[in-house]
Specification:
The chain contains 1 helix and 8 strands; from the N terminus they run H-E-E-E-E-E-E-E-E. Strands 6-5-4-3-2-1-8-7 form an 8-stranded antiparallel β-sheet, with helices on one face. Strand 3 and strand 4 form a beta hairpin. The protein is globular.
Length: 113
């Protein structure tokens, strides 16, 4: 569970961006992270500063904010072994992009299933 939700935190991170504009393409769309074993996380950002995440049958939710060039996720329910808030650098991407962030392959896909 911890590794899966840490993947949610690692969603888009490579190049530092200092503006909330980085979230424009994420709001209303799905960010998918996949590890080498094929485990997927889906995270959905909302314009009101909240998010939900799914990893298999496990769900998490909370709030997000841009702090300098980082995105910080504060989980509504603490995830054991995961800092709360969990912050990491974030980069801009377009819907349809796929990139790597650490050990994860990340995709930004249109809509929320």
């Amino acid at each position: 569970m911890r590794a899966i939700l840490l993947g949610a935190v690692a969603l888009a991170f490579t190049t530092t961006v200092a503006s909330a504009d980085v979230m424009t393409t994420r709001i209303g769309n799905t960010t998918i992270t996949k590890d080498a074993a094929g485990n997927e996380n889906h995270i959905y950002y909302k314009g009101d500063g909240t998010f939900t995440a799914k990893a298999g049958t496990t769900a998490a939710s909370g709030t997000w904010k841009i702090d300098g060039g980082n995105i910080c996720l504060t989980f509504a329910q603490a995830v054991p072994g995961t800092p709360n808030p969990a912050c990491a650098p974030i980069s801009e991407h377009k819907v349809g992009d796929t990139w790597t962030a650490g050990p994860y392959t990340v995709s930004l896909v249109a809509g929320i299933p």
